[in-house]
Amino acid sequence: MSSYIEIVEGTYRNQNCAGMQFELVKQFERGAKKSFVTVKNQGQFEGCPETIRIACEGPMSYQFVGDAPVQSEVKDPAVQETDEEAISRIRERFEILTEMTKAATSGSIRAMIVSGPPGVGKSFGVEQEIEKATLLDQLAGRKIRAEVVKGSATALGLYSTLYKYSDENCVVVFDDCDSILLDDVSLNLLKGALDSGKSRKISWLADSNLLRREGIPDSFQFKGSVIFITNLKFDTMRSQKLRDHLDALQSRCHYLDLTLDTMRDKILRIRQIANDGELFRDYDDITVVEQEEILSFMDENKNRLREMSLRMALKIADLRVSFPERWTVMARTTCMKPA
User: Fold this and answer.
1) Is residue 169 classed as helix, strand or coil in its secondary structure?
2) Is there a contact between 203 and 219 (Cβ–Cβ < 8 Å)?
3) Looking at the predicted structure, is the pLDDT value of residue 64 above 50?
4) Helix, strand, coil percentages in the chain from 3-state DSSP, rounded to 5
5) Burial degree of 146 (CB within 10 A; 0-12, 13-18, 19+)
6) pTM (2 decimals)?
7) What is the dihedral of CA 179, 181, 184, 186, to 10 degrees?
8) pLDDT in tens, 67-80
9) What are the φ and ψ backbone dihedral angles of 111, each rounded to 5 degrees?
10) Are strands 51-55 and 35-40 parallel, antiparallel or unpaired?
11) For the chain, what is the radius of gyration of the CA atoms?
């Protein structure tokens, strides 16, 4: 049976493939010079081979859409968003993220999943609110009631962390811990923590020397809050293996999609942060004109930049300051994929 994928970020012969769907031939591979996923062309690129390789950064650069291509809704060009409308939509989503994080630190919101592509600042606002909460705890001499966990987490580590922050008004933020979703034990623990029921009992039934040494019981009531930040877009993920699990997680908690689904959205998000004075605030030497030069450079080269992100904007700003006469040459060499 054939499987179909939708490209989140990727190019073919320097043409942007974001949003395009293909029949999968071979999963993600790392080559000597480029990384790619192999798909069937099926006439989408005229005059090109039937089997092509889409250049992408990793397996998160595409998502499964099932056993047949999904027909995207075609919008009337007359009702397409203007740049101002898109920026307003994006700004509102991030403001909601901040408000929901505040509610989580007070115990009003017990579980939230935040979905958005990497490098757009989805973790920044959450971490700011967590830092405020922990600073107040430190000043008051109280037990720290929040933690941000980044990267891979084992099931046992997840259980221990949930126990540590199981009291009321405690918050655990899992940032870029998508490996949890690929492990059945971790998934079941996460489901228990995200459950909307009044009683959230979490258990570890396997024997563990670590838990005994740390004095952690084999079951406890979880009364804290969890924020799970992910690059995965739950609504469009169609991998049969993950579908039921993701639906179960979504049904248990608030789900905030930051709606940064296109390259244009990412560029507008970067421009929004820059225009708000936040992106380049640590660069005293960058003028408004130079800021616009950086943003225009990123827009013009969006299909060749190694990533479209706030981090990339700062990398190019560093080059703009360090090499004022040759910064574009330096950026093309160090920040862009080979032609």
Assistant:
1) coil
2) yes
3) yes
4) 40, 20, 40
5) buried
6) 0.72
7) 70
8) 666 554 444 444 47
9) -160, 135
10) antiparallel
11) 22
